[in-house]
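Hi,

I'm pasting everything inline rather than attaching a file, because the server keeps stripping attachments. The sequence lines come first, and each chain or strand is labelled.
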Amino acid sequence: MKNVGVAILGLGVVGSGTYKILRDHREFYKETQGVDLSVEGVLEIRKEKALALGIEESKIYDNIAEIVSNPNVDIVVEVIGGVEPAKSFVLAALHSGKTVVTSNKELFCKYWHELEKAAKRTNAGLYFEASCVGGVPIIRTLIDGMQANVISNLTGIINGTTNYILTRMTREGANYQDVLKDAQKLGYAEANPSADVEGYDAAYKLSILSSLAFHKKVPLDKIYREGITEIQSCDIAYGDELGYTLKLLAIGKNGEKGIEVRVHPAFIRKDHPLASVNDSFNAVFLKGDSVGDIMLYGRGAGDLPTGSAIVSDVIYAATHSDVKYATFKNTQQAEPGVKFVNDFRSRYYIRFTAKDRAGVLAKVAGILAKYNISISDLIQKGEGCENLPIILITHETNEYSVRRALEKIGMLDDVVSVDATIRVES
Amino acid sequence: MKNVGVAILGLGVVGSGTYKILRDHREFYKETQGVDLSVEGVLEIRKEKALALGIEESKIYDNIAEIVSNPNVDIVVEVIGGVEPAKSFVLAALHSGKTVVTSNKELFCKYWHELEKAAKRTNAGLYFEASCVGGVPIIRTLIDGMQANVISNLTGIINGTTNYILTRMTREGANYQDVLKDAQKLGYAEANPSADVEGYDAAYKLSILSSLAFHKKVPLDKIYREGITEIQSCDIAYGDELGYTLKLLAIGKNGEKGIEVRVHPAFIRKDHPLASVNDSFNAVFLKGDSVGDIMLYGRGAGDLPTGSAIVSDVIYAATHSDVKYATFKNTQQAEPGVKFVNDFRSRYYIRFTAKDRAGVLAKVAGILAKYNISISDLIQKGEGCENLPIILITHETNEYSVRRALEKIGMLDDVVSVDATIRVES
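And the predicted assembly:
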């Protein structure tokens, strides 16, 4: 039986989950994987936290040097999060030739090349399944399951907090602020929710996932990002009437014009498999040239689901002798020659408020036509009121055309306000 | 650059798809995987088929011996299907130390232990992702993605033909025979459809998948199997009224009482992620003790989707030096000590035709109560007719109790016939 020692850096939510899984499954892994995984150390300054989990005092460290110099530690699990001190700790482990397993999306998205360089130098393993979409094995799938395919499209619901909020807004017709407060009470959203609700968390993950899917480093700054804070529940209801569900989508496309990466709220048709991904569940939808459409669905966060991904990497590292690194050039920026699309194409849901006067629609339609935008659906509400909402969905068009057309529409005398612009993905 | 030679045994649908993928992606794999995969031989007696694909004449063989003795061939892809001659060919390849990649579910399900023994002897790789659920990477996920979990439940829609037929019966209210004929015309069903519609194909796959999920060999003969040939569209419609969708499910459970494996039509709630898996799409839903619920969705058959799984295994074999075999004892039967559950628990949809007389329902309810079966839903149709259908759904109960109760109900004077019994899964 092979003995493999594990150290866990940080006993927060994911660290504690990881510890519990390793502790409770030790015999199971011996039987089914032929490997004895023992936790040889934890790095945690809150000693009482470690003791409460039943960890022996002699294995609780407050100093990374003691862990990376411990010959019993083969694999270092980093679940601290954020850039520092996680980065220094991971580099120290790699320098000592320890394999690293991490759930740290921000670190990985920003310093992938640097970590990989360090890992290669000592031939250490570097695994990051837990950095994206929690327990869903999307990274292993991209590297070892879909690698026969040229992937043209990756669309994901990859942030649980925003999906929980949007699901409740959809079900209850409640407004954003009320649901957010409730989500914070229930632990689904942080006290400072901006990383989630502004789309940063999804953008980190999209950077990692689209880099793997498209075999080109997709840096964070190439990702268009828009959060859900401005979403009004009436738009969710109008969209529903037209057959759509609103989700915060992370979208990566790779086509002739280049790579297109964006995180923003979007309507999708109710019969799309992503439309029924609700609450804090996540899913990633991929399109490969051979496989066609596939989707992976599961829990994107939480102590045990993310711990499952961590321990899956630990077992993989413990039972495979060769490491397959990602194949990017060692650069933090985009490689020269890789093109990125800014003026992407989409359909658009537009809501504006107009005065109830003859000819308003004709003027609006005229402006849209000037920018080659054609209308596929239209609802007009509240007949007889002085001001009334008009909702329309366009056919596919360019982002820049829509922006310019909306500026012009906003300047019409009969238009009181342009209230909402939401992309519609097909 | 590593050069790896591939031979393809059989240029049927999957073989041709595999060849096309390898041919069209050769440069792509060099770039992204660092490996040059060349097709060094095909075994195909229909020479013109190979020539039409653009294969050089010198690489077309009609004799397995020439392929397994060819030093340029490292990996042998078996896509012939069925037991013989596929089995002899695979064994010949393994004896020569060639790694084998196969899509052959019947062969793998029946002779897994024998193939694995042969592979271990020469340290050859043995990969079978394409044997189950086409392009969906469910085998890699079970082996390398979910291995941190004790899996208690695996539920799948793993046969495309039956899902296509049931989807059309559901949408159109059409009857089984008509849709089957249409499916045969369109190439979704074979001229002799019994392997699909009687559930054999799903049972082969369930045997493989549940063996991997539960780390115990689950032999074919332990799987309860029931096809879709008796399904009437009126039951699909009544189920719809009660909030359920009908699917052919492959179900594996592993609990305290033992392993329970069954393939049969079943109603599932419309909001279950499997309920929206339509047409020829497949999906597998897993429950792990750490990860919770996860689902993989995609195309379960077809030249390119299954070819994608084959080539994914080929690349994996070409880029990983160590082989991880499954961990069963070398036996074709169930291991002694492994318990299997026959009298499984489920909810039941029951439809029977009764004479419109007072007291029928009371008598039926009385019999059910005697067997400890309680009713959760009931619809009675066609009031005023002489004979009328009564539809009920039970709470969870034992299979054997239901069978005995239905025998008694069938003997009641006022009951004309017991027309349908369909399990309801939650």
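The mean pLDDT of chain B is 94.

If the labels don't parse on your end, tell me and I'll reformat.
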